Amino acid sequence: MNGTTLKIRGYHCDAYGHVNNARYLELLEEARWTFLEPALKEKFLDARNLLFVVVNINISYKKPLFPEQVVDIEITDVTYKNKSMVVRQIISDKHTKELASEAMVTFVLLNSKSGKPETITPDIVAKFDELTEMRND
After folding, report:
1. Are the CB atoms for 19 and 12 separated by under 8 Å?
2. How far apart are CA 8 and CA 11, in angstroms?
3. What is the pLDDT of residues 42-74, one digit of tens each?
4. Residue 88, CA atoms < 13 Å, CB-side half-sphere
5. What's the pTM value of the predicted model, to 2 decimals?
6. What number does CATH give the domain 4-136?
7. What does each C-alpha distance from 126 to 22, 32, 120, 130, 133 come to in angstroms?
8. Which of 27, 31, 45, 133 is in the most buried spot, having the most CB atoms within 10 Å?
């Protein structure tokens, strides 16, 4: 599975020398933007007046991350509901494959004009399935 590969930098770390819990949110967000990039380039969301908004994140920390460590961040599952979707993201060491953290991220798609949640339609599911397949090639 292909994910987003990032190198942990010193500025990601706290006084204890490992990645601070709040920085995991930034690492996960970077990977989501990379995941969405093909859809953003083709204006998939813009053409439908959609905003992709995080409404909940639950993170389980398994192992600390340290400076100079190279990690892969993958979206491994997408679950669709009527007006929300949940993606599972994992951060693992690129070389050892050891799991560092797992996050369940819930999104809603908001109408950019009304600010109200939109129903997850079959074309949205198809696009996210396509993005997931692209990442798994």
Report:
1. yes
2. 8
3. 999 999 999 989 999 999 999 999 999 999 999
4. 6
5. 0.89
6. 3.10.129.10
7. 32, 17, 10, 6, 10
8. 31
Inter-residue long-range contacts of 94-98, CB under 8 Å, 24+ positions, other chains counted: 94/5, 94/70, 95/70, 98/62, 98/63
Which regions of the chain does DSSP assign to beta strands (E)? 4-7, 50-61, 70-80, 84-93, 99-111
Residue 46 designated active-site: no
2-39 pLDDT, tens digit each? 689 999 999 988 999 999 999 999 999 999 999 999 99
H or E, element range at 123:
helix 122-136
Integer distance in angstroms from the first to the last C-alpha of the chain?
7
Question: Among the options 14, 46, 77, 123, which is catalytic?
Answer: 14
